[in-house]
């Protein structure tokens, strides 16, 4: 059974790096088909003592389009054929078949930005006893990028995350498997993401907290350097910061 507390002790830094195996990444860092660019990402991670990487094969930028399963699997297979054994890996996907292939290949964690809303993904996590990252999703939203209205975004995100995780535990997920992510930039207006970021210390601490703010538009409103934003996260009790591999 995966245990986040034990896993976090294995990491050299409270950081995990982003590997986008895509050709349409919103931030322009996709490495699809380029062994050279993938090696550069690995080298950057090693040089910066980052030993945990999050691999995604489909962009979830605003107005993204779902890939068919075979195409996403082809992209994952490109990565698997060229992966390094010097890292721990999570798979960033909405597709349970892609997640299963990654877990079969040594990945330890599923990072599902839909908040584990699909029964097949939940069943896979139960069966494999892997780690999971549960990203916040407003229960009234039709998709992960739909901009929702909030009165008190911090309180409402906390409430939603509590409900999401309680539901997963009732279905058979073990508490030790769970980390949570407030979903900065996903389904939130820029002011809401900014408010969440500035009040990370008020997020629930029942589970390890993962935060990803790297290259998101709302950070333009925050008068902090990249280093200051990372320090703010860690001082606010965040357990892991998800960053592009040049931050």
Q: Any overview of this molecule?
A:
- This protein has 247 residues and is of the alpha/beta class.
- The protein is 36% helix and 15% strand.
- It has eight helices and eight strands, in the order H-E-H-E-H-E-H-E-H-E-H-E-H-E-H-E.
- Strands 6-5-4-3-2-1-8-7 form an eight-stranded parallel sheet.
- The longest helix has 19 residues, at 153-171.
- It is globular, with a radius of gyration of 17 Å.
- The mean pLDDT is 92.
Topology:
Elements: H1 4-9, E1 15-20, H2 35-47, E2 52-56, H3 69-82, E3 88-92, H4 96-104, E4 109-112, H5 119-128, E5 131-135, H6 153-171, E6 178-181, H7 190-198, E7 210-212, H8 226-235, E8 240-244
Parallel strand pairs: 1-2, 1-8, 2-3, 3-4, 4-5, 5-6, 7-8
Helix pairs in contact: 3-4, 4-5
Summary keywords:
single chain, 247 residues, alpha/beta, TIM Barrel, 8 helices
In short:
With 247 residues, this protein is α/β, with parallel strands linked by helices.
Q: Write down the Rg.
A: 17 Å
Q: Report on the biggest sheet.
A: 8 strands, parallel
H/E element sequence: HEHEHEHEHEHEHEHE
Strand content: 5-15%
Tell me the count of domains: 1
* CATH homologous superfamily designation: Dihydropteroate synthase-like
CATH classification class? Alpha Beta
Strand order of the largest sheet: 6-5-4-3-2-1-8-7
Total helical segments: 8
Mind telling me which CATH architecture this is?
Alpha-Beta Barrel
Structural class by helix and strand composition: alpha/beta
Name the poorly predicted regions: none
CATH domain topology: TIM Barrel
Question: Cα distance, first to last residue?
Answer: 32 Å
Number of strands: 8
Average residue pLDDT = 92
Q: What best-fitting shape do the alpha-carbon axes yield?
A: globular
Please bin the fraction of helical residues. Answer: 25-40%
